[in-house]
Specification:
Elements (H helix, E strand, L loop, with lengths): L1 H11 L22 H14 L3 H11 L8 H27 L5 H19 L9
């Protein structure tokens, strides 16, 4: 009986030491920054009342990353480049033959360029101030 009681006590006995963390951070990221960037980040962390590591983790969770140019925008830029080439050819033709002879073509090219620039300038992404 005593042996069973002693065995039950040893099973109930808790181990000492620090409790096990629910989330274990086992990876390290090394980020190189300039002195100015370090001061900026440490100042923001201090204002938030967080350590540098905690501030970086919070900033990484809230960050929204968008590509500089989407494939559609790249295609629009290529089209705009072609239009600029056409406009340059029209300008050279206007110098040779006179502006009145190519006025309609120039107006059409300028309207196409204006429309393309409008499409390119439209920004439907959130949180990106261009």
């Amino acid at each position: 009986m005593e042996a069973a009681h002693t065995q039950q006590q040893s099973q109930e006995k808790k181990k000492g030491g620090r409790p096990v963390k629910r989330v274990k951070r086992s990876y390290t990221l090394v980020v190189r920054v300039t002195e100015t960037e370090r001061l900026l980040v440490s100042g923001k962390a201090r204002e938030a009342g967080l350590s540098l590591s905690a501030w970086f983790r919070a900033a990484a969770k809230k960050a929204v990353v968008t590509a500089r140019l989407r494939p559609e925008e790249l295609a629009t830029l290529r089209m705009l480049s072609g239009m600029a080439n056409n406009l340059n050819q029209l300008a050279r033709l206007a110098h040779r033959e006179g502006l009145l002879s190519v006025q309609g073509k120039c107006r059409q090219a300028l309207d196409e360029i204006n429309h393309t620039l409008h499409l390119l300038g439209r920004d439907d992404r959130q949180g990106n101030n261009r």
